[in-house]
Amino acid sequence: MRPEGQAGPGALPRRLDTEIPRLRLVDLLALRWGRPLTLLVAGAGFGKTTVLAQAVRAHLLAPRGIDAWVSCTARHGDCAALTAAVLDALPGRPDARTPLDVLIRLAPLEVCLIFDDVHEIPAGSPGAALLRELVRTLPATAHLVLSGRELPDLPLARREAAGELLRIGAGELSFTDIEVCALARKLGREPALARPLRGWPALVRLAFAAGPGAPWRFAREEILSRVPGGWRRALAALAALGTATGDEVAAVTGEPVDLDALVTRIPLVDVLGDGRYRAHDLWTEALSWTSAAPETRDLHRRAAAVLTARGDLARAGTLACRTRDWCLLADLSVELVITTLSALPSAVARCWLDAVPAHEAAGPAFLLLHAAALHAADFADPRIDPLLDRAWHAMRESGGGDAGLVAVLAQAGIAAHSRADLARLAELAERAGLLDPAGPIVRCLRHTVAATLAEMGGDPEAALAEIVLAPVLEVPRVLALSTLRFHYHCLDMCGFGGEAAELADRTVCVTSDENVRFAAAIARWFDGDPADLARLRAVSARLGPEAGTSRDTFVTTACLAVIASCVGDGPPALSSGAPEDHDNPRDAVLVSAASAAVSVAGGDDPAARRTYARHLERWPVEAPFNERHLRRFLALGYVLSERLRDRWERAELGPSHRRARDAARALVRARAGDLTPAGLLAPAHALCHLPLPWSVELATRLAAAGEPAGAELVRRLADPVGPAVHRWLRQYERSAEPALAAGAAQLLGALPSPPLHRAHIEVLGAMRVTHDGVPIAAPQLRRVRVRQLLGALVLRPVLAREQAIELLWPDLDPADAARNLRVTLTHLRSLLEPGRSAGDASFHLRTDRDSIRLVRSPWLQVDLWTFDRLADRVALARADGDVDQAADLLATAVSLWSGEPLPDLRDLADSHVAIELDRIRVRHVRNLLELGELRMVAGEPAESARLAVRALAIEPYDARGHRLALAAAIKGRDPARIEAVRSTVLTALRQLGVAPDPATKLLLGRLTTIG
Question: Lowest CB count within 10 Å: 101, 522, 704, 966, which one?
Fold first, then answer.
């Protein structure tokens, strides 16, 4: 086996002195570059790894692409482990998240991904599923070689029927008579010794090494009997470890050993390119015949300790199962649970549990492992707690130390917290007091359990004081992540939303958990910061069960429903049930707040009040746990319930909760005629803490009293929210309350209403403006300064008046320049909204004393803005592995381009404008090339060639464009096209005076071969 995650010849075994070149197989394997899938399937000792290594080395002499090597082990049954190994083996692209994404990003270069010892991946495991997905979705520029004793279940029928599959089996891998004779000559043996072995390479080699007349099993034993006992123990240690350093082998044998001498004396022991050593799996069986069972068991225990230290618990468990060492497997089970917790590798756990005989399965370690496996499948499984209790009591009675008890307590704590089981957590807290407090995991668990109890007891400040003491830097990452998530929950509960968001942002770097990423944006919103609104809306639109656990989805849905009520959006589609469906105040608060927010957003305040009244009747405000969770949505409760209002006026609140109280207090006082708090309220806090009907009402009451803050608030609401603000203003205009109606009418006059037509501005080429899709030939568009000002606003939607003057009239005196700007703005308003009366405020173009704004809205589309948004969506699609969507988005972006962007701005003396224009051009070239590479992967070389031509017309010296053009020519096999592309690339390189990069050189060499 190879060291994991290495590509190319550095991961291959050194060439043996007695290795014979197997050129017929090397030539056969060269066909892998013409087939999507190559399979080498044969039993142990057929030389699969050796011949693959020879083929990779031979390929270096005449490269057609990139070979990447992954040696599989049992731990690669875990999808994350196999993904990491593949990503390590493939070159470059650190931003890629999946093997398929890397293969696509490497296009147009061809890649051959070699999986050696693929039989090590457990059948039915997530790793095997990843292999199936790779076989099914393999890009046209990628090739797979799967080598092993047997293969996982793969979708091969379609590829085999299409002639896309190359099979190499035991028949091809067996030595021919000529090869047997060649090896015999090298070793000074008679070929006749190997005649009964039918060309089985490993046995032929063993027979020659053991002497004349020995059968293959005796040959192995004969070899072992001729070496010193220390060497035999070293070989056994190496076979147990798979691959190892000299120090690791010495740690198992208890004595130093010269492994280089071992390699020279014993066949099928290799030195790998990174200095590690490997013994062939055939030696495992041989050693089992020549070693006493107690000796083997003792050695395997020491090998398991080494494997555990380097994180390979899967192989350690395999050793324990092989020798039926259930005591060792029990210790490993405890280690597996404590180092993985809620991220338990289920395939490994199931494999171990299936191997344990019935009379051993009742042991406490296996009860723990069983409970962890059940929790991984269904956290509500009623069997979990009884199994953990049995494990706890059995471990306590055995007096075997705290390690097992810590694992049981950790797993039990996670299970109880998943169910919000306060009684169970209290019981676990008592148990934690029985453990030795010195270890970091015990200390972390004790602080976490104590913090959870404090939080569920209604004292999040005490919980926060406990959780900050947890030694998260000293415990496994999984336990640290769980603790950090509870830490920022406690910060949020204490009203420190900003600090919670900062902690969640820092946690993002150690996890790919999407719920951690949502948490920061949600915490910021309830802190009064709407900066992540667009992201929250995107989360709400795609929220589904796949977003995380059912608990995570439930909490996120409730929070997003409240946020949606603040911005006039519909609530998320997923239902959280009714409040009475939940048996604890924490979850009942979430559902009640979400339900009340939806009612308020629909204009039904009485229904919202009834929701809160029913909740408080069932869960009294005097109950601390209930009251503290009600604070999470404080503004709702403050306005809808006098009991909560009175309580929170007297309460000490954290900064986030104070801001929410200020927003709610401003509304309540405004309704009573006191507008002082409303006039002081930050618009962002009104947006984040009040449902939209309430924030618009607040602006309306301010406007009715002649307060300028009313117009400012409604403007700050309208920009992110849009037409929903106008809808509520019109509704308030019909109010029976005179002041409310007058204020709404006043704001409707000041706040621009949406235009009658949707405008579309095109700047990726000659400027063009359309209304409802119809091009307009307005005389204003013929004015250069109008086009330049509009172009500048497209680049910078908020432009200071001084900036506009400096950009367009740098040589005029200030008074003349200001007059020119006013005239130009008049023409621009008329161009964008020709039907709007002169006295009405412009919807698209907003101005004040200092600035000019081009407002983004559903009524205004700009091709450049769409172009930039598509770039972000492409990045998300690639990160999600959705290649088809990425290609569609890129095609849309490419179709927007009709020429040089914003040509009227090219002559302006402004370096920032020039930089922006270059950015747009570079982005377009990148889109062309990325789309061309995806088309190449999909087997469309003609379209790839056209896209490469377009890219090189803009950037003729782009190396990536050269590679795409070359690869498309190779795939197209048109001699004239091949020669034209070759000439273009070589001419560009000569003009630059540089040599081609290695990839371009590889493709040029391939062109020459084809020619």
Answer: 101
